[in-house]
Amino acid sequence: MKFQVTEHVHKTPRHTTFYLASGNEQGTPIIFVHGWPDLSISWRHQLPCFASLGFRAIAPDMRGYGRSSIYENYESYTMEHIVADMIELLDSLGHERAIWVGHDWGSPIVWSIASHHPDRCLGVANLCIPYLHGASLLDLLVGSVDRTVYPADIYPAGQWDYILFYRESFELAERQFEANIRNTVKALFRSGDPQGEGQPSLTALVRKNGGWFQGLPAAPDLPMDTRILTEEDLHTYVAALERNGFFGPDAYYMNLERNAAYDARARNGELLEIPVLFLHAKYDYICATTSTPLPEAMRHACSNLTEVVVPSGHWMAQEEPAMVNAAIVRWMALQFPELWPRN
């Protein structure tokens, strides 16, 4: 039986969230949260899978993306606002709690839901970005850089240099991404390369090169990576980004201090006692979690943590969907046997 994915809109006086859904409306919700510069369709391989198991699978367009509300100032893209969007969405589903799954910027959102609203979580699973809780996210990231790959005198911020580029040259970054959005999407959505291990990422040179594309005013015309995208997927991403632009997606990087202040108000400090799954992307050399101490804070903060390494690059859910689905299903079967339909 093939499970249909349907389109929905939830509106409140403060925000509108568009979302995709599949499966039994009375089923336990599992909510998939995308990152930069993605859309709800990034979970297209997960929605029918979890619907077929009896769950209500949900994937929203986050604020600033797709058909959800967009805003014109940085402050509207703080973690506190985004978490409120997700809690309102859960309320609209008529459920007290959900399993939350995040990727890229969706991971800090899911971690924040878990730390601020543990009563709204059955458990959380995150792809690529571990739990990082502290006064300065950038300091935590730079402190984890592998200095054998990124000597400090050449790469002071390591592979995280691109975050500083947003903060110093936001309008230039926005302009370069928007100059040729079709090429930008093709350039960004690439599968992992095992040969890249131990080599500096181009993201470590973004400020030196004057932008993401090695000094070019726009993304080069690369072949589409068919492991990640189809032509239909590419068209959907391009249409959404041409309509909304990159201000919203890029603005997520402009609230690190505001987000740190929000972190400081988390329940139980930094500790998470609910079940947690973390999926490492072996060939993600920007958020490198298998070869650096970046996940250590997560290991100390999560009392019920499961870790799985997936042989993929950053776009794990599209590149290796069967492995990702299997890892989440296995974790859910062990942690939540009571949630599985019995007929």
Topology (SSEs and partners):
Blueprint: E1 6-11, E2 16-22, E3 29-33, H1 47-52, E4 56-60, H2 79-92, E5 98-103, H3 106-116, E6 121-127, H4 137-143, H5 161-168, H6 170-179, H7 181-188, H8 206-209, H9 231-244, H10 247-251, H11 256-263, E7 276-281, H12 296-301, E8 305-310, H13 316-319, H14 321-335
Parallel strand pairs: 3-4, 3-5, 5-6, 6-7, 7-8
Antiparallel strand pairs: 1-2, 2-4
Helix pairs in contact: 2-3, 5-6, 7-9
Question: Any key phrases for this structure?
Answer:
343 residues, 8 strands, Rossmann fold, alpha/beta
What this model shows, in words?
- The protein has 343 residues and is α/β, with parallel strands linked by helices.
- The chain has one domain (6-339): Alpha/Beta hydrolase fold, catalytic domain (Rossmann fold, 3-Layer(aba) Sandwich).
- The chain is built from 14 helices and eight strands.
- It has helices at residues 47-52, 79-92, 106-116, 137-143, 161-168, 170-179, 181-188, 206-209, 231-244, 247-251, 256-263, 296-301, 316-319, 321-335; strands at residues 6-11, 16-22, 29-33, 56-60, 98-103, 121-127, 276-281, 305-310.
- It has an eight-stranded mixed sheet, with helices on both faces.
- Strand 1 (6-11) and strand 2 (16-22) form a beta hairpin.
- Helix 2 packs across helix 3 (106-116).
- The model has no long low-confidence stretch (mean pLDDT 96).
